[in-house]
TrEMBL record:
Protein name: 3-methylcrotonyl-CoA carboxylase alpha subunit/geranyl-CoA carboxylase alpha subunit
Alphabetical UniProt keywords: ATP-binding, Biotin, Ligase, Nucleotide-binding
Record lineage: Bacteria, Pseudomonadati, Pseudomonadota, Alphaproteobacteria, Hyphomicrobiales
SMART domains membership: Biotin_carb_C
An annotated Gene Ontology molecular function: ligase activity
Gene3D superfamilies registered for this protein in UniProt: 2.40.50.100, ATP-grasp fold, B domain
PANTHER family: CARBOXYLASE:PYRUVATE/ACETYL-COA/PROPIONYL-COA CARBOXYLASE, METHYLCROTONOYL-COA CARBOXYLASE SUBUNIT ALPHA, MITOCHONDRIAL-RELATED
Chain ranges of the Biotin carboxylation domain: 10-454
Cross-referenced CDD domains: biotinyl_domain
Lipoyl-binding domain mapped to chain residues: 584-660
Organism annotation: Tepidamorphus gemmatus
Transmembrane region(s): none
Limits of the ATP-grasp domain: 129-327
Length: 665
């Protein structure tokens, strides 16, 4: 009989109050343990993978998170309707909401996580710092007081010494945070931080901290139960970050002195004992690179995104541990039974364009192929549609090996062989990061990305040219009509018996446009692109394609050919140059087209078809990247067509409105 059926708090059915990869990951453990699962979904996620994997699914509201995944009453109603004994919150959304924990308790439903008091105690950064100081846990020199007057805060900043960080007390993710390097900049920075904090969290309280110039971000995985047991499962390094959001995580942390590691564990356990902590938690620290004195930052009272690296080195399932503790059972292992074996590194796969300042990407995935021999936690599959309502993270790639070098090598191979075709992702960027000397040496700080890519990231030109050549060769072998360009008379040049047939092609993809001269001869395919000659050899018309020892994945979707090879992906539109029409007239027509500058949500259209507009008049408003953009008429004329509606999610470069020129009226 399952231990959950006879536990002090029996659990048979678990509702997962989350979405995406973490919901799928929780479902996998529940299924292994014989527990029934219930998914919840918004209208945007009706066809999502976690909905298909669960035993039962319930709609909880429209796409905005505030009306669905943050709607506690709707989630509790779904739990009652499904007969759920427990709710697992995953991470984000309601996972650190003390009010929701209390609501679960009042409804007689087990909350898979810590007590409401523990969540509340650590939920405020100011209160958490006070508790840490009282428990003797070292903290960054700063101010966490109740007096929030501008004069007092300015005086405390002077006492701490510049540079200082202003941080929102109630939130994270970089919102409500400002770095101030000079006293004269403090007041405007404080106003900006407070405004941002009030908007994001409904609370403009701030704290001040001494700014550490070259910090490492370290954290300790802790676990407690209701029987008084408390353990740590070693530490992680999460120093590679973008806008204070983690990109890579690994365990154990490389190049940490033994004395610093001991201090991390001691401080984390001391803090947890001070609040009587139970369930999974993570205590986060900051430490100067090359130092040995970690300072407490905050505690996350939930499962972390990066928990798989701890699972890999400790050989445990932390979701199973959460369920056991929630059911009132003791931890399965004591501290002296927990051993760290080997090294693990995780990379977060996100739908975003690193080459465009990490602009979010939207659309439908046409193929998702995981690499062999490596853990891949995903919330997407072929056919999954993603929009702008939720976080851009799609999946995680986790590599484990007997040492860091082998784990890193496996991660690099995994990033090379992973194929996620559809909306753009950060895969090529991650692979580039993983091969940099500082990363390979385990010597990174939170400054790694801005120092490595001071002018922003761009794909390697040689690798991009190679992938474009592969795409053109595959296109040439698999025309929709079953023929090949080599059998066509237009655009085809016979160069003689000793020279191959050649065809000039124009390729457009997310990185721009290129012209290629493709040749097919006795030696197979050769491409001339951007001054480079790329020999591809013979490629099969069907079956597996392997080039330079790496698999190629290609999927046609309408007029786009999606191709992945060696960690890079493009969605290409390929046309024989002779078929490319002269675009001067089309360009003139395009002057009257209103184009989406970013993927976003249409929020207002103050015009109707047939309306007259002057150049510069507002035509459409959209939200993109958390900002409101008003798009104006590029020319004077009449609204000829509107291709979207309020509430639509539109892709970058989509034609939204067409305006006929006034001269054409």
């Amino acid at each position: 009989m399952s231990p959950f059926a006879t536990a002090p708090r029996p659990i048979r059915t678990v509702l997962i109050a989350n979405r995406g990869e973490i919901a799928c990951r929780i479902i996998a453990t529940c299924r292994r343990l014989g527990l029934r699962t219930v998914a919840v979904y918004s209208d945007a996620d009706a066809g999502a993978l976690h909905v298909r994997l669960a035993d039962e699914a319930h709609r909880i509201g429209p796409p905005p998170a505030t009306a669905s995944y943050l709607a506690g009453p709707a989630i509790l109603a779904a739990a009652h309707a499904a007969g759920a004994d427990a709710i697992h919150p995953g991470y984000g959304f309601l996972s650190e909401n003390a009010g929701f924990v209390r609501a679960c308790e009042a409804a007689g439903i087990v909350f898979v996580g810590p007590s409401a008091d523990a969540v509340a105690a650590m939920g405020s950064k100011i209160e958490a710092k006070r508790i840490a100081i009282a428990a003797g846990v070292p903290t960054v020199p700063g101010y966490h007081g109740a007096d929030q007057s501008p004069d007092r805060l300015a005086a405390e900043a002077k006492r701490i010494g510049y540079p200082v960080l202003i941080k929102a007390s109630a939130g994270g993710g970089g919102r409500g945070m400002r770095l101030v390097e000079r006293p004269e900049d403090f007041t405007p920075a404080l106003e900006q931080a407070r405004t941002e904090a009030r908007s994001a969290f409904g609370d403009d309280a701030v704290l001040l901290e001494k700014f550490i110039a070259r910090p490492r971000h370290l954290e300790v995985q802790v676990f407690g139960d209701s029987h008084g047991n408390l353990v740590h499962l070693f530490e992680r390094d999460c120093s590679v970050q973008r806008n204070n959001q983690k990109v890579f995580e690994e365990a154990p942390a490389p190049n940490v002195p033994d004395v610093a590691r001991a201090r991390l564990f001691e401080a984390a356990l001391r803090l947890c004992r001070a609040i009587g902590y139970s369930s999974a938690g993570t205590v986060e620290f900051i430490m100067e690179a090359g130092g040995d004195s970690p300072y407490f930052l905050e505690m996350n009272t939930r499962l972390q995104v990066e928990h798989p690296v701890t699972e890999a080195i400790c050989g445990v399932d932390l979701v199973e541990w959460q369920l056991l503790v929630a059911a009132g059972l003791p931890l399965p292992l004591a501290q002296d039974q927990i051993r760290a074996r080997g090294h693990a590194i995780e990379a977060r796969i996100a739908a975003e364009r690193p080459d465009l300042g990490f602009q979010p990407a939207i659309g439908r995935f046409v193929a998702v192929s995981a690499p062999a021999g490596i853990r891949f936690d995903t919330g997407i599959a072929a056919g999954t549609e993603i929009g702008l309502h939720y976080d851009s993270m799609l999946a995680k790639l986790i590599a484990h090996g007997p040492d860091r070098a082998s784990a890193l090598a496996r991660l690099e191979r995994g990033l090379a062989d992973l194929a996620v075709l559809g909306p753009a992702t950060n895969q090529a960027f991650l692979k580039d990061c993983a091969t940099r000397p500082a990363f390979a040496a385990g010597q990174v700080t939170t400054r790694f990305l801005p120092e490595t890519f001071p002018d922003g990231w761009r794909p390697d030109a040689g690798k991009l040219a190679h992938l474009r050549a592969i795409a053109c060769a595959i296109w040439a072998l698999n025309l929709p009509d079953g023929g090949t360009p080599w059998t066509r008379r237009d655009g085809f040049r016979v160069m003689g018996a000793r020279r191959p047939a050649c065809l000039e092609l124009v390729l457009e993809d997310e990185f721009g446009e290129a012209t290629l001269d493709m040749a097919c001869g006795v030696g197979g395919f050769t491409a001339l692109i951007d001054g480079r000659t790329i020999a591809l050899g013979h490629l099969p018309r069907s079956g597996d394609i392997v080039i330079d020892g790496r698999p190629v994945t290609a999927v046609a979707d309408g007029d786009l050919l999606h191709v992945a090879h060696d960690g890079m992906v493009i969605a290409a539109r390929i046309t024989p140059a002779i078929d490319v029409t002269v675009r001067s007239a089309a360009a003139a027509d395009a002057d009257g087209m209103l184009i989406a500058p970013l993927p976003g949500l249409v929020t207002a259209i103050p015009v109707r078809t047939g309306d007259m507009v002057a150049e510069g008049d507002p035509v459409l408003t959209m939200e993109a990247m958390k900002l409101v953009h008003t798009l104006s008429a590029p020319v004077a004329g009449r609204i000829a067509a509107i291709h979207c509606a309020v509430g639509d999610t539109v892709a970058a470069k989509a034609v939204l409105v067409e305006i006929s020129h006034q001269s054409e009226e």
